[in-house]
From TrEMBL:
Organism domain of life: Bacteria
Protein name: ABC transporter ATP-binding protein
Keyword Membrane in record: yes
Any single GO BP term: L-amino acid transport
Organism of provenance: Ideonella livida
Species classification: Bacteria, Pseudomonadati, Pseudomonadota, Betaproteobacteria, Burkholderiales
Entry keywords, A to Z: Amino-acid transport, ATP-binding, Cell membrane, Membrane, Nucleotide-binding, Transport
A single GO molecular function term of this UniProt record: ATP binding
Gene3D superfamilies: P-loop containing nucleotide triphosphate hydrolases (3.40.50.300)
Length: 253
């Protein structure tokens, strides 16, 4: 008797992306299992951010296909718009966070909640859950987002992405520029999302965070995925880390 492998939540097959005259992705193959955390690692310029932006339809794939729950959302002849992709349950936290600096924390979250026009229409239980993950957002509820610290802005960016239930979160470099204490708080919040079986695809350069969160890993180089496997296996193999990433995870505790 054979057992079919479950369909991945997200799958990229042979994806190429051009940005103007530049050929950035060169046939990316990537699968993201549902309910788990997949880390997307690689040196600077490997194509990680371009991969996330291609998934979201911000840049169109010039060849190959992007499939979500088995349905095509990207690729020649089946490119969905970014708003349509978001409506399917994907949320993207870009490296620059994408928050509105002049608006309050409250109004940033309200804008991200498609089902609510007013604060009293927000899901109160979900809002309390978010405050449990990120207590600073409750404290600074009526502060302009631009006055938050870097770590608090990152927490707001993630909170915006999860103010409504999402099927898949794409997060680009969440720990970049954060102090170690803020990174630890962010790890704890993302671990809670993981315990809730939230599906995450994370681009991250902090390898302690990658090891703490990742179930699976895909390593990119020169616009291609050159390695896939269990994050724990990569974390345990310093020779493989050196070969794929040019450094050792042990040096980034």
């Amino acid at each position: 008797m054979t057992h079919d492998k479950p369909m991945p939540l997200l799958a990229l097959r042979g994806v190429h992306t051009h940005i103007g005259a530049y050929h950035i992705l060169h046939g990316v193959d990537l699968t993201v299992p549902e309910g788990q955390v997949t880390m997307l690692l690689g040196r600077n310029g490997a194509g990680k951010t371009t991969t996330l932006r291609t998934i979201m339809g911000l840049w169109a794939a010039s060849a190959g296909e992007v499939r979500f729950r088995g349905e095509g959302i990207g690729g020649v002849g089946q490119q969905a718009s970014t708003p349509d992709i978001a409506r399917r349950g994907l949320a993207y936290v870009p490296e620059n966070m994408g928050i509105f600096a002049d608006l309050t924390v409250r109004d940033n979250l309200l804008l991200a909640a498609r089902a609510a026009r007013r604060v009293d229409q927000l899901d109160a239980a979900r809002l309390d859950w978010i405050f449990g993950l990120f207590p600073a957002l409750h404290k600074f509820w009526l502060y302009p987002a631009g006055k938050l610290s870097g770590g608090q802005k990152q927490m707001l960016a993630v909170a915006r992405a999860i103010i409504e239930p999402r099927a898949l979160l794409l997060i680009d470099e969440p720990s970049k520029g954060l102090a170690p204490a803020m990174i630890q708080s962010l790890i704890q919040a993302l671990q809670e999302l993981k315990r809730q079986r939230t599906t995450l695809l994370l681009v991250e350069q902090n390898f302690a965070m990658a090891r703490a969160l990742g179930d699976h890993v895909a390593v990119m180089d020169n616009g291609r995925v050159v390695h896939t496997g269990r994050m724990a296996d990569l974390a345990a193999d310093e020779d493989l880390q050196q070969r794929l990433l040019g450094l050792s995870l042990g040096a980034h505790q």
